[in-house]
Amino acid sequence: xxxxxxxxxxxxxxSDRTYCVPVRYLWTDAFAVCNFFGLFMKTGEAKYKxxxxxxxxxxxxxxxxxxxxxxxxxxxxxxxxxxxGVHPTxxxxxxxxxxxxxxxxxxxxxxxxxxxxxxYFHYLTKWMHALNLATKITGDPxxxxxxxxxAKMAYEKFTHTAFDGTKRMYWxxxxxxxxxxxxxxxxxxxxxxxxxxxxxxxTASKNNINLNLNGQISSLFQMSQAMNMDSSDPLGxxxxxxxxxxxxxxxxxxxxxxxxxxxxxxxxxxxxxIDGFMQTxxxxxxxxxxLAFRELGLSIGLHGVKKIQELIKNNNEYFKNYIALNSKxxxxxxxxxxxxxxxxxxxxxxxxKSNTWSEHLDINxxxxxxxxxxxxxxxx
Length: 380
Known about the structure:
The chain is mainly alpha-helical and about 375 residues long. It is built from 16 helices and five strands. The strands form two sheets. Strands 1-4-5 form a three-stranded antiparallel beta sheet. Strands 2-3 form a two-stranded antiparallel ribbon. The protein is globular. The model has no long low-confidence stretch (mean pLDDT about 95).
């Protein structure tokens, strides 16, 4: 079975498994929307575009509203049913965790928090990207508008001023965005925001949408510059490489050559991270001791290395440090074989019998499909 057929099978199974169940998970669904649009672009079959837009609608009407086990009802934003449908993202979107959020009078339990609902900024940025892609594919500006409305609300509610006067971000917020559930700052959240907001602004400009994000973009850039981006977590490294791929495209699109230093920094951190990850020897462990979606995140990011290098080759006037960039990319290309190693491991039916695969079936399978063909996900 070729890769395209594999992706079709994986995504059809995902649809059959999840569409009739009133439960959604924002991270998985963001990748799924990109995968369905990718299948539409590759096959020309309208059903895949319809699947993507149906999923967008489901996410908004499930994760944009309060949980069924909550005393609150309706849209998180507080808008009435009709107005909420016009602005489905303006109150944010729930993560989609199994258990309800921790209330303000409940004791914090780190292990329990992982299974409790709320809002994550880095999940919201993934959904903004998926919505922006919807405008790009369909030509309908409303998806970009929804993404920008989400971006504005997310920035307003997740950012705060610390005691030293610097701008910071909460890692996890309550469902209604009124209080932080985890007050620490996500290592790459500001970077995710900066790159994603630039992407939204570019699309808005092309569609004559007058929704300004300049202030948020400037603030997110400053916050990202203050963060150490180094990570040996495969999902974190993959996120850095995906951001680098997006940033390289945006540098060319917006002619912002001043961002090439930031691109070099992201590639350097990614390379350092992969070196560290490989020293753990995790990829030699049996399936029960590994998490597919984290490894597949790395594979997805690595797929962007060739795309970055091609962009620099064809547009080196926008990359003032293109010699240093190409040097880092050449070093990163030494790790491209990891994509096949990770994908083939998790395509093996024996490894899919493991608890770590079956317990995270949706996120594992959808990200496997993305890794098999990440072109749409990696495109801005």
